[in-house]
Every structure is written in structure tokens, then in C-alpha cells.
Amino acid sequence: MKYAFVNPKWSFTGSTYFGCRDPHYPLELLFAAQKVENAGHAPLLVDAQNDDLALEEVKRRVAEFEPDFLVIPSAPSYLFWRCPPPELRVPMDYFRAIETSATKVCIGPHASATPAAVLRKTGADIVIKGEPEQAIFELATKPWEQIDGVCYRRGDGSLHISPTLAVVDMKTLTALDFSNYSIERHAHRHHVFFGEGRGAELEFARGCPWNCYFCNKQLFRNKFRERPVDAILSEIDAVIARGVNYVYFIDEIFGVGKNVRMLLEEISKRNVSIGFQTRIDLWDEDSLDLLGRAHCISMECGIESITEEGREELNKNCRMTTERITELLIYAKEKAGIPWVQANLILTDKDDKNEIHRWQDNLKSHGVWVSEPVPMFPFPGSPLYSQTFGAAPDDNAWERAHSHYMSQFREGDWSDIQEQLPRSIAELESVEENAAR
């Protein structure tokens, strides 16, 4: 069997999307392509974002390959499955444009939360709920109704919606060799705002043991699991050999697992720097010093609220006081020598604005960057969605969440990394408007 994996050239015009817009390694496609190849099938990876390919060139490559399966994600990179563009405009465009007799497969956070809506909107034959790597290669060998996470429209028009999510055993994700990927075209160093170099995104662990109120990970990448350290080191050495000197770990939460210290000790011996997202309450002075020795240059910490009451309301399960959090953030910057330490805040009624400003000013005086508190997007599948709307996601969940989020802003209040005149999902997904672009 032949599998074509396509990472679209993503567009965010008019979107409320607040993630990074630069290209990132499509690890979900790289891992799936590797599993397909290991199972004796033929994969083709086309990364239109990284390689700056026009849609016509993507169509040509897929047509020439003549695949049995065409796989397209609904969001850019695993890193942004937690905060995806709410609309499906881009995958809809690609599924419509690529003329093929192949079985069309859509993966991603939208498919995990609202599989019937994704089938309808994209015209895909199959969507996969959860982590897709295992399910994708099983499509060639098993009856679809027996595969975890696989949802599709039967011949009589009825829907088969898998009652389970696809979950991957991380030990089966053997080291990527990147022989099918244009590493040299990828210059972006994620979450680094100074200097020069060449970056890569890798994955050490998947999932998170916490269940924060706002976090969108329950329907994919939920249970915490580590990959073997040797596999990560093999990937790090592979990208270093091709000119990479910075690795960003896409993990939901870096610093939890039992093998983190071992990994950091090995990284400290290599000519590479690292960055990641984490919780500051996972670290102390000794482990922050280890981060410094491991050449950490970017550390983004989810603080969310400056009060214990606010963090409790968000179900952070944080056992540190705000004073201790402050101490460690400053230590990471000034003593451990991490150049970029960031503290992220979320809008909560438990925090006084004047107190927030004082806390921000104090940390900024020590060189720690602090975000402005931002409203939460109630992503379908997150605890926030269920508590906001009192129900599980239905086929209108993304539109409902998007409308609610838009109502929290006045014109001009949007983040500087968002579109200042965002449009409704209906407008963004309009076939007529997309054809006119």
C-alpha cells in the first residue's frame, strides 16, 4: 500500500489562532510515515509549509505517487494541537484540490473532538480520534471498525464513530532518522527571540498528568508517557549532524518524567541548546542549574494566576506559594543563566489587576518576561468547554466556542500575534470565499 502524508501550507488570515506561524516539524506525519514503512508499505511525505510549495506542486507530487491513502492533519504540528485554528479552512481546501482515488484520512484535534463534523466539512473518508500513528498503518490490514479511533461513513450513509481514542505506545516510536525530511530548509528556532542558528522540534514525552481547567489535551495526547532516552539522543545527534544547534521539545509538559535528568545530563555533553514549555513547580535550584548546564535558552512556564486561589480555580494542583514561584523564576534567569524565562498568565477574576502589574514589574526588573493575562478559548474536549456550555462537544462545538471567545474581546484587544479583524468560522470555511482567494 502507498500512503501520501501532506502537511499543508498553512494560512491564518482572519483566524483567532494564537500559535506560532512559522514551519515546525510535522512529527505526527513523520512518525506515521515511519510506522508505515516499517510495516512494509510505501510512504511519501510532502511538507508544503516547510518547503514553501504551492498547492499545484503538492497536487503534482501526490498524483505522481498514486497513493492508496492520503493523510492530512487539521492543525499544524503536534505542538499546536492544544491550541489549533478553530476553522478547518486549510484542510478543506487541500482535500478538495487534491484529485485522487485514494482513501482520504483526516487526523488532528478537530477529528478527535467532533469527528462527524470533520467528515462532513472536509469530505474525508476517515477521521481518526486521538493519536493517529498506529491507526494509520492498521488501515491497510484491519477492518476499520476494529481500529481504535477510526470513524467513517459506511456504504449506506450511516456513521461509524469509534467509541475509543487511538493511543500510541511511546516505546514503539523508534528514533526518526529524518532521511525523508528537508531539515536544511528549516531555520526556525521556536520560542527564541535572539541570536542566530538552526532549530528543530522533537518529542521526549507525550501527555500530562495534570488536568488543568483550560487545557485542551483530553481527547489526544492525554496520558503521560516518556520515549526511551536513547531514541531521543539518536534524533538529537541526527539533526545536529545536519546543522541544527537548537532543539525545542514539543512535550505538553517538559520535566515530569523519571528520565528527564538522564536526558539533560546527556544533552549537556552535546553542542546543542534546548527550549520547552513547563511548570516552574517541577523544578528547584539544583535542577534549574542542570538546565543551565544542558544549554537551556528558552523556558516557558505556565503560571496562569498570581494567587493560590486563582490557580486552585484553574485546577492547577500547584503546591507552591506565589513567593516561591517568583523566587524560582528569578533564579532560572539570574543564577541558572537561562536567557529567556517566560511566565504566562490567564485572565481570572481571582487576580487583582494592580497586583498583577506589581508582580509583572518585579519579574521584568529581573529579566523575566511576563505575558498579559489572556482570555481562555474553550476548545471542544477541554474541561473549560464542558463547564462553559454544560455538555460534551457536538457538531457545532467549534462554532459555539469560537463565538464565545470572540465575545470576550473589543476591537483592538486582540493579541499582537492574532489577526486584528478575525472572522467567523462560517466565513473562513466558505467554499466561495476560499475559491476567490
Automatic annotation (TrEMBL):
<dbReference type="InterPro" id="IPR058240">
    <property type="entry name" value="rSAM_sf"/>
</dbReference>
<feature type="domain" description="Radical SAM core">
    <location>
        <begin position="194"/>
        <end position="416"/>
    </location>
</feature>
<protein>
    <submittedName>
        <fullName>Fe-S protein, radical SAM family</fullName>
    </submittedName>
</protein>
<keyword id="KW-0479">Metal-binding</keyword>
<keyword id="KW-0408">Iron</keyword>
<dbReference type="GO" id="GO:0051536">
    <property type="term" value="F:iron-sulfur cluster binding"/>
</dbReference>
<dbReference type="InterPro" id="IPR027559">
    <property type="entry name" value="B12_rSAM_oligo"/>
</dbReference>
<dbReference type="InterPro" id="IPR007197">
    <property type="entry name" value="rSAM"/>
</dbReference>
<dbReference type="InterPro" id="IPR006638">
    <property type="entry name" value="Elp3/MiaA/NifB-like_rSAM"/>
</dbReference>
<dbReference type="Pfam" id="PF04055">
    <property type="entry name" value="Radical_SAM"/>
</dbReference>
<keyword id="KW-0411">Iron-sulfur</keyword>
<keyword id="KW-0949">S-adenosyl-L-methionine</keyword>
<dbReference type="GO" id="GO:0046872">
    <property type="term" value="F:metal ion binding"/>
</dbReference>
<dbReference type="InterPro" id="IPR023404">
    <property type="entry name" value="rSAM_horseshoe"/>
</dbReference>
<dbReference type="GO" id="GO:0003824">
    <property type="term" value="F:catalytic activity"/>
</dbReference>
<dbReference type="InterPro" id="IPR051198">
    <property type="entry name" value="BchE-like"/>
</dbReference>
